[in-house]
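Prompt: Have a read of the protein record below and flag anything odd:
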Amino acid sequence: MTDRDAAGDAGGLVAVMTGFARTLRAAGVAADHDRTQNLLAALAHLDVTDRAAVYWAGRLTLCASPDDLPRYDRCFAAYFAGRRATLARTAVTSVTRHLAAREDPGGEEEGDGEATAAPATASRAEILRHRDVARLTEAERAEVHRLLALLRDRRARRRSRRFERAHRGALDRRRTIREALRKGEVAGLRHRAHATRPRAVVLFVDVSGSMAPYAETLLRFAHALVRSEPRATRVYSVGTRLTPLTAELRHRDPGTALNEASKAIPDWSGGTRLGEELREYLSRFSARGAIVVIASDGWERGDPGLLATQMARLSRQAYRIIWVNPHKGYEDYQPLTGGMRAALPYIDDLVAGHSLAAYEQLSERLAHA
């Protein structure tokens, strides 16, 4: 290989890894210039054709906290799997618009212009992650919805009653004896252990008038949960009626799923009678062992005493109750509405639900519940 070929290979590696760092910054990972340089220095001592080596070099140099790890994994899988994530396409498009609108009297090269524009794009994406979805433009909201579709629900797992083969654990007498009879001697002991499965999530989405600015985004989040764990997720809309939406949200395409869910919901932008709807749910179904997520602002039009009674019943069944309130994202928020005061004693976690960052944190909470 000539010196020119080596320089070309090095330049290609720098371009690829710089693009990956931009993708991470757009996803909210603190992959700044210094961290990117550390990555390139590490790769100089590694085999860059080894996917695992590149993965760990990037993870150790580009991530600043445990919160960065799930976003890093998603971006790495998409970026190096031969396809660019929606996140990466968004970042590149933003840079192009920035350069087209900018006058360049100095006649700088395109590469310099891109290096200048990328931090602004990453900063804009980071700001977008934390902005209230009720205050976004249509284009910004569409971008947030695309990013929500990239969420992968890493659900907490629980022990199943069923057993599976294992290298260690309890003695599997039946399989040990069966093999001994087949072979004529005990060749070895066989073991078994309890299998695990994803913990079920029951999600109630408030579609009343006061929650209208957040309802679509919450349903997009619900679609991501259903797509990740279709057999362990149940979704209902609550307003004046309890409406199951799980079947509608199983469509692969988010737009189609939301259209089907919208057709199924008869009480958009009405009132909220959460106490009556929880009573209906508990009389027909069970939340035993499940993580129950209630997304509502707590403006209860029904009897708060009934809501408190049903929340008490629900808390005796559920593994954990998480209440998602869009207004919780503001520092001066106080749970003063009648519904919130009635439900508060039975809630394990009261979390924000107003931004993309809040939904990412909720997804992490479901993974470690």
